[in-house]
Hints:
4 helices, mainly beta, 12% helix, 4-stranded antiparallel sheet, single chain
Amino acid sequence: MTALKISRRLLLLGATLFAAAALARQPDPPGQVRAGEKPVNEAYLFAHMTHADYGRLYYSVSLDGLHWYRLNDGKRITDDYRGHPDIARGPDGTYYIAGNEGDSAPTINIWSSRDLIEWKRFSTYTPDLKATPGYSQALQRIGAPKIYFDEPSRQFVMTWHTPHLEGTPEDAERYWASQRTLYVTSKDMKTFSAPPKRLLSQEMGTIDVFLRKAEGKYWAILKDETYPTLDWVTGKTIRIASSDHLLGPYENMSAPISPNFREAPMLIPSPNGEIWYLYYEQYPGVSYGLSVARKLSGPWYQISGYTFYSTWDKYSLPPKVRHGAMITISRKQYDALVQRFGIDSPAQAERQLIEPPK
């Protein structure tokens, strides 16, 4: 066969493969409602920070839990808030958001809102970290406080992570591997149980832990914060543990739900209420992944996204959004947020995603 014929065949093969790729279509994620069907979950709010303005409060919203659009022209919702946003709704409909000035700050600050539009300072909590039973070596660090309201016990649980070892030039990762998740409870988000206690008994690094109740159990969704090695292949992944009781023990630690080097998980039910959507960030601000399952116990699989090809991307978020919290809201609340802050159009969002985030 001549070189010319080989070249022509290679060109033909390349054209065929390109055409096949162009015709490829990913199936749509499960959990969406059919035309004319009323969703169980009408809308969603994503309270987050951004890569350029880390630790401040921004909003994006969605009607399907898959496609998210910025509010407020990509500007802060309030200048007062600082922290890693996490929102919980209390028994009287009041929303609470926790934050802090930085991991080394001694206090956790709490804001409240009736409408998710106006936030005001509500309370401040200063935990005595070294009083934590069995954890007297705790360092003065409070990472990413999160709030969960438990309907059966009518109490809030606030969690955060605190390390007990400083990093060294030879082993910077030991700081992160020493993170342990602590908690306190509260009936009113003004007075808190004392002292803090450890939520998880496992001797492994954990951060970004939040609680949920579903399917007759309590679930702790967490980041395994030990560095990945051949001896610890689950490191820096999102995992789930379960318990029959709100405060544990949390056992049955799952296999990784995400790839390595993912953090800040967020969990929402699908519009039809039959599927779980679990988002997680590929840090630092690279992209978001999405895994889905029928049950929190799994099995989980990943949805295609962040390829920047419309035929492959089945979910989309504004570029350079960083971690926070996703919650379900009503269509009335969604409309009020859009009316107050304004929303990016699909065309605006598409223009933002023409170039992959850098």
